[in-house]
Amino acid sequence: MNDTLGKGKLGTSPEKATLRIERLLPGPIERVWAYLTDSEKRATWLAGGVFDLRAGGKAELHFDHTCVSAEPTPPEMKGRRFDWQETITRIDPPRLIAFTFAAAGPESEVTFELESRGKEVLLVMTHRRIADRNAKLNVSGGWDTHLGILEDRLNGVEPRPFWTTNARLRKEYEALP
């Protein structure tokens, strides 16, 4: 993937091992923050699990993709769950939370930054220190899909299908130089 903006809402790659995706979401900022930090709300678009909201605190991520959209799970993915124990590296409620993300490499870190823009909230997700191109392709389509579902949830509409959206986005990211 190159260092320029892809088509549409695709994320950017400001550095070789970095992915950055922006979304303008309906606010207020406290509502978006709750969808990032509350296990039940986060499970509807990404992964459940308790976050100990302090630097050095644990961040459990229990991915169960049957909870994020109504699309049936493909047979090869049925019964597969992904559980990770991560660590919160930085936090400034309700504006910033960052945590490790070992699935994309041992030094990988994800940061969510929120900024009020009138009645809307700019969410900037930056995933840094991604191990290699394959890991970057995996997380690019994944983050883009999950953030789209978050956008749908906050807008009160039926979430887009997870599996088909993720497959389409992965192909779009693979096509970038």
What would your notes on this structure say?
- This protein is an alpha+beta fold.
- The chain contains four helices and six strands; from the N terminus they run E-H-H-E-E-E-E-E-H-H.
- It has a single domain (19-175), classed as Alpha-D-Glucose-1,6-Bisphosphate, Chain A, domain 4, CATH 3.30.530.20.
- It has helices spanning 29-37, 39-43, 133-155, 162-175; strands spanning 19-26, 58-63, 82-92, 96-100, 109-117, 120-128.
- It has a six-stranded antiparallel sheet, with helices on one face.
- Helix 3 (133-155) crosses helix 4.
- 30% of the residues are buried.
Order of helices and strands: EHHEEEEEHH
From the 3D coordinates, which CATH architecture would you assign? 2-Layer Sandwich
Distance between the termini: 5 Å
Helix content: 25-40%
Keywords:
177 residues; alpha+beta; Alpha-D-Glucose-1,6-Bisphosphate, Chain A, domain 4; 4 helices; 6 strands; globular; disordered N terminus
Outline the secondary-structure elements.
Elements: E1 19-26, H1 29-37, H2 39-43, E2 58-63, E3 82-92, E4 96-100, E5 109-117, E6 120-128, H3 133-155, H4 162-175
Helix pairs in contact: 3-4
Short description:
The chain has helices at residues 29-37, 39-43, 133-155, 162-175, and strands at 19-26, 58-63, 82-92, 96-100, 109-117, 120-128. Helix content is 29%, strand content 27%.
